[in-house]
């Protein structure tokens, strides 16, 4: 395949996905340092974008681009229970996405898309246009493009192309910062090549590196972080990365042609991480979780490596940026002990206990506990019985045991400075639209897909849950 040359200028949407971009950073703290983004705001509409629950990369980008909530999608995180057994887990690749996304609707309407690095696009799927898969891609040796032959063009143009920085939870910050800037640079080179030479109506690229940057360097930026180091040589790392993305945005906008609609979006925001709540440790000590042999004291052990006494267990959890709590229900799980008749009462009791867990000083954490049926239009797949934001996401959920208490100030998966925030951002710039420079009230992440379709003149399916931005 050769690179196609576009000839006919037409209405387009250019979507710039900044994974984890914080509204306060873009709209306030760094606005004067981001001239391109500031011009888009001054000439467009902008505001907060409420993410899905959970507000994590998977499933947030799919929720945004399919306009369906995680319950409808049946995707509750990067890893999901495959069934009601105790150990069958699946990774939420593109195979888990069973509903159309924006480019699928556009393909059906005969419109071409360029999709670069959007989470949950590996393995690649057919579309009218071109796709380069996401951070889930094992390596450049795999089939990471659609059409498959496009891979040769990508590697010829950008032979050092990469998908992610795999080991971003590291103490080697000099190495990490170099890797993150290199990642953005090679992904931008490909984006420029695609936007100039391929035929497209809709273009979207997601920079996953911004998310990794926050997790690796937030302590140096945020003076409220308990590990903040004033005067650190990494003090400008976060701001400099945003400045780079802003400059890259300007280059893409310039090459996209007059009349192009520009969207800047993030799937969620960012906030400091204060520590972790050892949720399985607490469940065990509170009598909800039982083991045939006690976890070794003082030795951190993964939950998956312990011998659970399921006949004596009412609940267990998966850790992460939020907690997923599962009840061991009779007739549902193989050795369930919670009777279906007592299910609602047991779940409510556990939710109340989790919400009341204190921080290390004994003060309330302001934990939020969600019931799937209350927050989703439908509950498909194997959903958690409860979803928990400890400390309103200032505390992550830690699944391992051996901590000796219900909290920890160390992350059991490596150094991590930040958690996600529920609100991301959007900026919508349409050169044909009047009434520009307006901050709007918060919109929902599911509003983005119908916005793209409407702006491109494609019918918005009635089953989409979001509504187009005005």
Topology:
Layout: E1 13-18, H1 23-29, H2 35-43, E2 45-50, H3 57-66, H4 70-73, E3 79-81, E4 89-91, H5 102-108, E5 113-116, E6 129-132, E7 145-146, H6 150-157, H7 173-197, E8 202-207, H8 209-221, H9 237-256, E9 261-265, E10 269-272, E11 275-278, H10 279-285, E12 315-318, E13 323-327, H11 343-355, E14 368-370, H12 372-375, E15 386-389, E16 395-398, E17 407-408, E18 418-421, E19 423-429, E20 438-439, E21 443-444, H13 448-455
Parallel strand pairs: 1-8, 1-9, 2-20, 2-21, 5-6, 5-8, 11-16
Antiparallel strand pairs: 2-19, 3-4, 6-7, 9-19, 10-18, 11-17, 12-13, 13-15, 14-15
Descriptive report:
This protein is of the alpha/beta class. Helix content is 29%, strand content 18%. A hairpin with a 4-residue loop joins β12 (315-318) and β13 (323-327). α7 runs antiparallel to α8 (209-221), α7 runs parallel beside α9 and α8 (209-221) packs antiparallel against α9 (237-256). The radius of gyration is 23 Å and the shape is globular. The two termini are 39 Å apart.
